[in-house]
Every structure is written in C-alpha cells, then in structure tokens.
Design goal:
heterodimer; A: about 130 residues; mainly alpha; 2 domains; 6 helices; about 5% strand; B: about 270 residues; alpha+beta; two-stranded antiparallel ribbon; about 25% helix; about 15% strand; globular
C-alpha cells in the first residue's frame, strides 16, 4: 500500500472527529422535564381522559376537537367517563393548565416540536 | 358516520324539536336547552340565519357601538393604515353601500347617511366557490364560515366577494401597534388570527352556539331596541321575518345573484 502511514493516520483522525460529539456528550443527556400541574389541575384528579391517553394522544384529541368545533359546530365532548366538556383550547384546556410555559412548552422544547397553536390562540397570563 | 339506533333517535327528536319549537321571540335556543339536550349534536340544524337592519334607527352612535362590540369580541385589531385595515363590520356611505341605486333625486338625507355593512352571508356565496382549500364554506345554518387553520392566504375569496367583506392579515395581529390597541387581545376567550390569513364576520357562531345573539346585535339593540333584528329567515314567525313583512327593504347588489341575507329596512 502506498502512503499507508498517511492514509491510516488520516482515517484515525477522520473517524475520531466523526465520533467526537458522541464521546464529548456521553453521559450528558438532557433530562426529560417533569410535568408541572397547577393546583386546579391537581384538584381535578383527571384530565378529560386518563393520563396515559392524554400523554400519547393529546395532539390527536386537540386536532379532532378543532375539526369538530370549527367545521361541524359540535362543541361538547363526552369523555369515556361520561363527563361533558366544552371543547376549547383557550377556554377549557388552559383553564386548568394555566401554566403554559411549564406544562406545554417545557416538554415541547425537549421533544423539538413547535406546534403553531399559539400563533393565534392566546396563552394564559402567567405570574413569572 | 356510524350511528346506532339511540343516536339516530336522539338526532331525529332534536331536529323535530328545533323545527317545531321556533316561536317568535324565542328564536334562539332557550337558555339551558343547549346544555341539556344537544351535547353532541351540531347546533346548525334547521336554521337560516339572517339580519334586518332598521335604517331609520341607525345613527352614528349605534353604528360605532356595533363596530366596537364586534371588534372587541372578535379580537379585531386597529392597524392604523387604511390599506391594511381589518374590518368585520363597518360604516359606509350610501353610494358605496348601494352603487347603482344613487338616484339623482333621493329622499332627503339618504345621500349623506351612513350604513352598517358586514358580511352578507350569501345564499350563493362566490367566496366559497373560489376557495381552493375549503377554508371558507357555507354552513347548513347559512353562516359563511371561516376556518383559519386551513386558510393559505391566497385571497381569491377577497377578489370574489363583491361586498368587500373580507380582510387580509398583512401582519401578525398580535403585533398590531400597541398605542392603538392598548388591551389587545380584548377577548381572552377567543383566538386572534395569524399573519397571512383572511378573516371576516362569522355571525359570532360561538355565541349563537351558546344561545346568545351576535355581539353587534346585542350592542346595537342596547342603544336602540330593534335596530338590528337577527334570526332565522326560514321561520315564518321569527322576528326578522315579521319585521321584513312589515317594512320595505333593500339588499346590497342583489342583481349579482349572490343572495345576500342582510336586509336594510328603508
């Protein structure tokens, strides 16, 4: 092999550079943020549906609500438990979860998702 | 839609109830009826919303109160620049409101008079026909509705509307000049719009769903009872139909065939 020494050195440096971020950031993974509940949310015990459902499906539920309210004028939601809720991000969801920065943004930032809800919908006033 | 027997009976019963129970003065749903009965049934069944405006009672004070109430309720900002103005309901002169009817010899005062204009919620709305995303469409109850989530801001609807009832958001309404909008957003229970969408009057659909009148009707009638008569045009006994039977009325540009549903009682 011609110039074997140079090639191998180059390879070692190249692979080293490539893997540098992996070693540099090893063990420093950002911790998943903790969900923060307001007193009102705590007192309610349960969201419109059980926690496990809300954790994975809240975006689908919200999408369904928006579709039904805006396009079909179906404004009330009957949950699996039989309780009836007025469908509204601003009026119903944020009434309990009035801590948007802690409840919504923290986790959305961590996951790198940027829902455009708040381009139009008005976030609750928070005491910071 | 999958529907079981129970659900079908519920809807059928409700529709009958809404259709039969439309007494004059009781046109909107009775208070509490919404909550009690129609939790999961659309509230749009069996109606054709329309409005009659009593021009004799209309004065600048009333018009300004209506505009103010509407824009407060719907978070419509003041932009300051008339070219980028956003309006859901506004004041206009006779010749602009009713072009083609500027007779040389009009009854006294008409030429100088201002009229209250808003979306006509046409029976045959040209704006809906041109919308490429169905972001605007005609609801069963006659309301020409907007879905801001779907609007792509192409402004075809603005070109199609012969009444100038649609406004485009050239900028983010939440960034409208603070000195003109000290308390914006004025209604924290209602969203604003975003940059690049078209907006217009929705007859306050979310208020109707609660059995309330649109914001302009409430504000106008507080000052001059009977100036704005809102109700179901399909119901013979409704307040609007009664008013329209008694008084001669005109509509804006009916010759275009759009079927405007705002009547001006002369």
């Amino acid at each position: 092999m011609y110039d074997g020494g140079k090639i191998i050195t180059g390879l070692v440096i190249g692979v080293g550079l490539l893997l540098f971020p992996v070693f540099y950031n090893a063990g420093k993974a950002a911790k998943a943020p903790e969900r923060v509940l307001t007193e009102k949310a705590k007192a309610a015990q349960q969201c419109v549906e059980p926690l496990s459902f809300m954790k994975t499906e809240h975006m689908k539920l919200l999408d369904e609500w928006r579709q039904q309210v805006v396009r079909d004028d179906v404004r009330y939601y009957t949950s699996a438990s039989g309780k009836v809720y007025y469908k509204g991000l601003q009026t119903t969801c944020m009434d309990c979860h009035s801590n948007k920065t802690k409840f919504c943004d923290q986790c959305h930032n961590y996951m790198g998702v940027a829902p455009y809800c708040w381009d139009c919908h008005i976030a609750p006033k928070e005491n910071q | 839609m999958a529907m079981d027997r129970r659900e079908f009976l519920k809807i059928a019963g409700l529709t009958a109830l809404l259709g039969v129970g439309g007494k004059a003065g009781f046109e909107l749903l009775a208070p509490g009826a919404v909550d009690a009965a129609v939790k999961d049934v659309p509230l749009t069944a069996g109606k054709k919303w329309g409005m009659a405006i009593d021009v004799r009672l209309l004065d600048d004070g009333v018009m300004e109160a209506c505009v103010e109430a509407c824009h407060i309720h719907n978070n419509v900002p003041h932009i300051g620049n008339p070219k980028e103005e956003i309006k859901w309901i506004w004041k206009e002169t006779y010749d602009h409101a009713f072009p083609g009817q500027e007779n040389e010899y009009l009854a006294e005062g008409f030429k100088e008079k201002h009229f209250l204009l808003l979306c006509n919620h046409c029976t045959n709305p040209p704006c809906c026909r041109v919308c490429p995303t169905k972001a605007t469409w005609k609801r069963e109850d006659g309301i020409v509705m907007m879905d801001m989530h779907r609007c792509i801001g192409c402004r075809f609807c603005m070109a199609a509307c012969p009444y100038g009832a649609r406004s485009f958001n050239w900028g983010d309404p939440q960034k409208a000049p603070k000195e003109l909008n000290p308390n914006f957003p004025t209604n924290r229970e209602f969203p604003t719009r975003s940059k690049g969408v078209v907006e217009k009057c929705t007859f306050c659909a979310e208020r109707l769903a609660k059995g309330q009148f649109p914001a302009c009707v409430e504000a106008g009638n507080k000052m001059k009872p009977g100036v704005l008569v809102f109700g179901d045009l399909d119901d013979l006994k409704s307040e609007v139909r009664t008013a329209l039977r008694k008084r001669y009325s005109i509509r804006r540009k009916p010759e275009l065939g759009t079927g405007p549903n705002i009547y001006y009682m002369i």
